[in-house]
Amino acid sequence: MKTFTTRTRHLATATGLGMLLALTACGGDAEETQEPDTTTEESSEESGADEGDGGAEEAAATDEDTTEDTSEETEDGGDEAADAGAVAPAEDFDPCAAVTADEVSGIVGFTVSEGSGEEMMGSQMCTFAATDGAAASVLIQWIPMGGDFDSNVEAATSSYSDASEPEEVTVAGATRAATVTGENMSLPTVVAFSQVDGGVFQVMIAGEGGQVDQVVALSELTIAQV
């Protein structure tokens, strides 16, 4: 059983690392996109031949900027309204302190031991091992990160065999959530990813018998404790 739990943790490491690598890639792209702005500013300064024409162009640009700013503020306001229901866990939020073994056992249908916590790559991870001889474990992981949700889910499940397409689900307290089933490190796996303010929760059942509704219920249970 200890070996099985260790494999579950290794599986979580792989999926968590995939998400963090996706975030790093997104950060690199963001930096690269800033370079053309500098070039544009330099070109603008060098090409100004006529002060009168320049003044007219600046006035037009100011009007355009004002319009763009107003549009962006409207869009930002819409995003804030959409995210208003999302919880905001602390970076050191500990799933083991939030969810009990009895609560997990009641959802997954097999008895688990008390959670074993571990900090991994900046994330907080809690593993619940089955105690009744079942080859199964439950993992709840909090990953403080940003980035595009769809890209993060794709990166996290890229090592899965026979992975299903991510299925959008509703998880209370999350802005978006998706579930994936498949096999990782020879283990049947079902996992839910829930995006909240400041990061992503990953809830995984590794072993035979894991169900999508179970990882969704565990996700909601965890998020409700934030």
Number of domains: 1
Q: How much helical structure, as a percent, in the residues?
A: 40-55%
Number of helices: 7
Structural class based on helices, strands and sheet pairing: alpha+beta
Morphology call: globular
Largest sheet: 7 strands, antiparallel
Number of DSSP strands? 7
Mean pLDDT over the residues: 76
Find the CATH topology. Answer: Protein Transport Mog1p, Chain A
Strand neighbour order, sheet with most strands: 1-2-3-7-6-5-4
CATH class: Alpha Beta
Taking pLDDT < 50 over at least 5 consecutive residues as the criterion, the unreliable ranges are 26-49, 70-82
Fraction in beta strands: 15-25%
Give the distance, in angstroms, between the N- and C-terminal Cα atoms: 30 Å
C-alpha-based Rg, rounded: 23 Å
Run of helices and strands: HHHHHEEEHEEEEH
The CATH architecture designation is 3-Layer(aba) Sandwich
Keywords: Signal
Biased composition (Acidic residues): 29-82
Organism: Ruania alba
Protein name: DUF3558 domain-containing protein
In brief:
It is built from 7 helices and 7 strands; from the N terminus they run αααααβββαββββα.
Itemize the secondary structure elements and their pairings.
Layout: H1 2-32, H2 35-47, H3 51-82, H4 95-98, H5 101-108, E1 116-120, E2 123-129, E3 136-144, H6 149-156, E4 167-168, E5 176-184, E6 187-196, E7 199-207, H7 212-223
Antiparallel strand pairs: 1-2, 2-3, 3-7, 4-5, 5-6, 6-7
